[in-house]
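2024-03-11 09:14:02 DEBUG pipeline.ingest accepted 1 chain
2024-03-11 09:14:02 DEBUG pipeline.ingest length=183
2024-03-11 09:14:03 DEBUG pipeline.predict start
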Amino acid sequence: MRPRILAVDDDSRNLALLTAKLEREGYEVGNASNGIEALREVHAFHPDLVIMDVTMPQMDGYEALRHLKSREETRYIPVIMLTGRADIEDKVLGFEVGAEDYINKPYSLQEVAARVKSLLRMRALQNKLRETEKVAALGEMVDGIAHEIRNPLTAIGGIARRLYEAETSPGNKEYAEQIMKSV
């Protein structure tokens, strides 16, 4: 399945250029023209990465980014802010709100494609790490359960062995032997 990218910009020319470049790079691209549309599209399109302008009508990119990073199901989607707002305060705010990258307009489409590729690679590694952590946690839980089962079984086996050794009745001795085998 091709990686999915949501491009968000209120300038249709910028959106068309970006979409064309990303599609040529092999990505499936969805579009939105403001922050509100972006939030709807994220839930419908399920992108692997979002590229978003800051200055847009209805809801700006910073506010849309805050919403994305505040929800568990969208928190780990990498976001690149692609904007004409080049002041250091704007960049710092973008990173503080949760952007993984911040690119100023005018930009190089080649550079954007390289950063997209890099962030998607990092996201794949993060997903793999999260899965590995889940498997490790499951392993620890299984070890804990096995330990909780082994302790009483060890005691039961030890008591059955003592009964077997001390028992003179063949029937009771057989019961103790069955308990030891089962343990």
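2024-03-11 09:14:41 DEBUG pipeline.report Strands lie at 4-8, 28-32, 49-52, 79-83, 101-104.
2024-03-11 09:14:41 DEBUG pipeline.predict end
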